[in-house]
């Protein structure tokens, strides 16, 4: 459970599914370029502080790891501005272990690999090129920064160097002579070789590209063979990168990004794929960072490249297009799926998912999105050495747009399994924009929506707040922002039925309150069609329609409990009638009544309508600290591996905040904190934070079923005795609930969690676990106890006679507050049968503490999440076996493990053809002064 | 009777006045009000109305009677506390009008002096004997919500003597006292006092927010150890000033420290807030401790036994007894010290 320091800049290397390596830069600067050194297991990264870093993939204990071995900074030229030596392009050359660095000043530097030693005598300054440029072209002006360097595909050692002004030179490195000049006059953006080396293609800032003949005689070429602006004739944006790939089956592929008509589609993020007359304009929802094609690395003389797939990294996701199947469908990614295609609003983890349920979910997911491409995932480098996961873990994420996504969390990468939408059940403000997609037929350019990142939510009320799922009965409860509680059932068949609606008034005729928040979502009338998968059977609507703050499900008793800021209710979904509703409002609690939206509602609504599609995700806006920095590049090693910089917008935002805090010496008003105990009549004291079902002793007379609920900010716990009829009599007799106990914690801190422990101190098993022989029966002889965890203290009370047994005052001792708790069972790494139940607690400082249960003795604590990362702490979920997930950015979950036995980490092996690196040791020894200079 | 009052005359043995309890019982008997709580007062030789509520002031009253002892009895619920105190008799001439017509002087507010039984500690300096003279351990007693604790803390830095010489280290300081707040009214805390410990836990290495949360979590029984900014008002130990050899203090220190620490911790536990349970919508009751045994010992034994995993489940025997003897709920709470309960006035529950 190590926390990455906020200063680190991570990037990932991904190969075949399960093969992934992560590198962490020590520097705070952003990663702008990454390049593989083909076949050698080396990676070169460029940061925006203009330092180069060499990374080595090395083997240890049979597994590959990634480690930084050395770094390099280009020394500034005396008397020149430092931007002169800012690196714009990097080209690792195929032979000779040399990398070329193009700079803003127009010079090209050569660097040994892997030693990272500058070959000063080889540096190519612009003057050398300018000598062979005719005077009428030169006009006394400089050539500008180096925009592209490309090595001749057939003849290593000959470099194509493109300058910003438009001049392209073919330079022979061995003879140090200019072989050919292409006198372009349009500002250059990128260059690419045709695979045979007979022609080159250049892309330009005006949205056009030019094809030049390269094989011909003569020293200079004045005019290109072809010059076109594909999306003309109106002014277009620049084409930032272009590729030319030959293809056996017909015309070559020309693939480029940008070039859209400035006025009409200047804001689109597009990659165009052109083959002969076929053009597809792939329309992404976020900025294109880089793209490359995957093809056979060894192309015979006179052969064709035949690209298999196009890999596009956009800011929010990774998209792979199958170029060999007609229609160019996408290939579903086994990793790096955009978790945040709509912002994540909650998450829920289920351990040990039964195989039956797993298969049904997978099947529902397959029917939902049939595979259009039969191609295998083209990025297949390395070998996954991790063991098959011992159990199936399911991570559910609730999203702002009302969807629940099911992820396979058994292994290292999260794989999407199934997506459940709840928006279709309701009449929302805006009907879904199917029309937008259909109109595509005659549109020019021929846009095609690609990728699934779509941060826009039609209606914030659809947002999912809480999820509960019973893995044995495949029943699920999904609750949302507008007080909607949906009871769902998994069905393998499609169905058309009406969803029955029940309304539960949580105010209980309390006078003097008017809800000023959002309206409830109106359900659609009549029968609705549902695809195979989770289908809603009952909609329970809380009134007032405040966001649901807690939900729990007992599938054996057919009961669902839900809570909002006003109270909580209990609903029998078998008989479809409410069992209980209880208002928890404090009389002084006016804030809860008005609802969180009241003051900003009208403004928010109008803003929402006017900025509908402009709205960005929570991610995008903060992404670039330095707008001038060049876009990140992706390198490909033989089309097998892929490296991507992982965006860390939260950390950047935090860094920004820290900067904004101002220099410490300007302490006009020192930060001070008021010491005042929480008062009993805090507002929002009625929020129900947790709900819990247990089969325990609530009253003296033997076993009685109980439902506990708590309200926050005032530390009260209500325990109800439930009379649940036996299984056969569900239809005849109703469930009855009687208030049994009410506990008021005097420290009045919000109650975070409740659990009942059996006579042996073990947590009670889940419903059906015992009857299906999946768990030991709880000890019903001895007296049970109830563990209540508030934000400040843990307390264990005996049941049924409530008396205080043990407690631990976390806040009073440590000064930290409880954010998340879970009872976890930690298995020993040694003998399998040694299992301990512990209380895991995540605090507001991002630490995880482990306590024994029920004696509540602190065992260990670890730093896990940075304390500034509030959204990370809020998103944390624990699994039953001592792992946990939290959002490290809006788009990435980090997994941690508290268990010695139950660890999930990438174990993979990459074979590299590099000889064991002794040379670099020598280099370090010989050149240590310059090495230390560069650091 | 027109004033809703009645008069009785009876005699007492001056030399053997007995206990206050007996006297109180006698009054209730004489007035035929056996179940009514009353306040008892008398007029002393200066004409002041003074309370009688314990053996001491009862004896004083009897001994000063000359020869008549005038006693005033008020029902507790409509008692006028303001009637008591110095000058009450001379000011109003007739104490009767004071007692019987309390409304008369409502317009003229004066300082209210509560009954001694209503006095309660608001603060104390504790552990003077074990702390360095430059430190002060202050205990603030917070009751209910009537008076705010009323202070603010801030980050700062202080100079410490370390093995490497003087070092500047970050510290937490009191930055502001709210006028009229509990902290200010004690006079024991001042702006720029450095906070060293909160309820026995050192604050060094903790952030301002952590210390804030610690103080709030302990706010019902807050014990803060400070290094006062003003070092001139420090408590000076007798042993040092009296010039006696420091030996006695030093030799007594190691032996006395554990005791005092134990007392301090125990005291903290005792005055700790008690959670409340309402059984079957009945009366709110405080939740008792499960076992009278020391908490840590109990948990230790439990752990060992849990590991051995007895088949029939284990509970400490004392706890078993408690559970089984709990035949009726009300029985158990009568054991509870009623005085202790009345001290805790945060026990009202809003439903």
TrEMBL record, chain A:
Keywords: Cytoplasm, Exocytosis, Membrane, Phosphoprotein, Repeat, WD repeat. WD repeats lie at residues 394-408. One of its GO terms (molecular function) is GTPase activator activity. Gene3D superfamilies: YVTN repeat-like/Quinoprotein amine dehydrogenase. Residues 618-638 are annotated as: Disordered. GO terms for cellular component: cortical actin cytoskeleton; endomembrane system; plasma membrane. Residues 686-902 form the Lethal giant larvae (Lgl)-like C-terminal domain. Signal peptide: none annotated. GO terms for biological process: cortical actin cytoskeleton organization; establishment of spindle orientation; exocytosis; Golgi to plasma membrane transport; regulation of establishment or maintenance of cell polarity; regulation of Notch signaling pathway. The keyword Cell inner membrane does not apply. It holds the Pfam family Lgl_C. It is found in: Cytoplasm; Endomembrane system. Belongs to the WD repeat L(2)GL family. This is LLGL scribble cell polarity complex component 1. It comes from Anser cygnoides.
From TrEMBL, chain B:
Residues 233-259 are annotated as: Disordered. InterPro entries: PAR6_homolog, PB1-like, PB1_dom, PB1_Par6, PDZ, PDZ_sf. Keywords: Cell cycle, Cell division, Cell junction, Cell membrane, Cytoplasm, Membrane, Tight junction. It is found in: Cell junction, Tight junction; Cell membrane; Cytoplasm. Residues 1-76 form the PB1 domain. CDD domains: PB1_Par6 (cd06403), PDZ_Par6-like (cd06718). Residues 137-230 form the PDZ domain. Transmembrane segments: none annotated. Residues 239-257 have a biased composition (Low complexity). SMART domains: PB1, PDZ. GO terms for cellular component: apical plasma membrane; bicellular tight junction; cell cortex; nucleus. Its main location: other. It holds the Pfam family PB1. One of its GO terms (biological process) is regulation of cellular localization. It comes from the Eukaryota. PANTHER family: PAR-6-RELATED (PTHR14102), PARTITIONING DEFECTIVE 6 HOMOLOG BETA (PTHR14102:SF4). Belongs to the PAR6 family. This is Par-6 family cell polarity regulator beta. It comes from Anser cygnoides.
